[in-house]
Amino acid sequence: MNAIIFKESGSWTDTLELTETILNEPAADEVQIKILARPVNPSDEMFIKGIYRQKPSLPQIAGLEGTGIIVKCGPSIEKSLVGKHAAFRTPGTWAEKINLKLSQFRLVPGNLPPETACQLSLNTLTAFALLEQAGLSANQWLLLTAANSSVGRQIIQLAKQKNINVIAIVRKDEHKNLLFSLGARAVLNSETQNIEEEIKTITGMGANAILDAVGGRLGTILFNVAAPFGKIIIYGRLSNENVSFSYGTVIYKNMKMEGFGIDSWMKSKTEEELGSIWEELTTLASSGALYINYDEIFGLANYKEAITCYKNTGKRIILK
Question: Does the reported pTM lie above 0.70?
Fold first, then answer.
């Protein structure tokens, strides 16, 4: 089968190569999945560079997320799974097929487009988990940085369903209309507007919870716009600059600062809880109540063009 591999960690524009590899028959406790779609995520670049929390086992097939159709079952697996659609988050998805254990994938409705289903296991679950960790009630204020990302767009939609007020922060005005249409109460441009003044004017007391994927200069401002007893949850690090804040600000506001990682969050849930969450999210996606976007599709063999497009435009890219 064809697969995109890297033999050493480094830049994904230099280290990746398309090659023919051998995939064994699925083990007794595995299924074999024909992969139909894979998103291109920031985590993919970090994984190839060797700086992601999951480390590659070189030589390594690239890719960390995907969806496909089960085509074979090992001897210990119920054969009725053949033909079912599955989504998964595991290394090695930038290939034509993959062998996985039952614990490594979840079934998805067959009518869900693969371009959507391939994004559920990371971004959609992350959006749900971040909103849960924020712990807000109806009519409270949620401040969201990097709001035009796939995670950000889904957080806005899920928050709207709970009547949580979202202030979305972007860097380009061209993103504002879409975020308003998804349910944001306010959309601010961090490059052209006084974020601190605008947020205080909109909310009065400040944001009750802040979800930050940026850090740097913007991250520093966030401490000043949190409401008393507010919470800042850090789940990304798009800026290489350090964040600074006053101890007094944190103390006098009784603020909390937390980190978020999807794997630790999942470990905190029972299998029954995760199953219920997955059913809720796939139902929302299948019904159209949760819009999961993508911008362009490239064939697996055209991965170089896909990466170039992703890096130059920031578009949401799917490999098929």
Answer: yes
Q: How many CB atoms lie within 10 A of CB 102?
A: 16
Q: Does domain 2-119+294-319 have CATH number 3.90.180.10?
A: yes
Other CB atoms closer than 10 Å to residue 205's CB: what's the count?
14
Helices (H), 83-163: 114-117, 125-134, 150-161
Q: CA quadruple 236, 238, 244, 245: dihedral positive or negative?
A: negative
The predicted-structure confidence for 265-309, as pLDDT tens digits, reads as follows 999 999 999 999 999 999 999 999 999 999 999 999 999 999 999
CATH class of the structural domain 126-260: alpha beta
Question: Please, what sign has the CA dihedral across residues 88, 91, 96, 98?
Answer: negative
Q: Which of 149, 109, 108 is nearest to 130 (CA)?
A: 149
Both structure tokens of 166: 């979202």
Extract the tokens encoding 38: 């894979």
| Locus of tokens 């595991």 | 90
Cβ neighbors of 239 (< 8 A, separation 6 or more) are 214, 215, 216, 217, 218, 219
CA-to-CA distance for 60 and 9, rounded, in angstroms? 9
pLDDT digits (tens, 9 = 90+) for 42-56: 899 999 999 998 899
If residue 46 lies in a helix (H) or strand (E), which one and from where to where? helix 42-49
Which residues, other chains included, contact 153 with Cβ-Cβ below 8 Å and sequence gap of 6+?
Answer: 147, 178, 179, 182, 291, 293
CB 297 within 8 A of CB 286: no
Sheet holding 226-234, edge to edge: 186-189, 165-170, 141-144, 207-212, 226-234, 256-259
Residue 148 burial (C-beta neighbours within 10 Å; 0-12, 13-18, 19+): buried
Alpha carbons within 13 A on the beta-carbon side of 81: 25
Q: What does DSSP say about strands 60-61 and 2-6: parallel, antiparallel, or unpaired?
A: antiparallel
Query: Domain coordinates of the chain in residue numbers?
Result: 2-119+294-319, 126-260
CA dist 249 and 255 (Å) reads: 8
Give 56's contacts (C-beta < 8 A, 6+ positions apart).
Answer: 6, 9, 47, 48, 50, 91
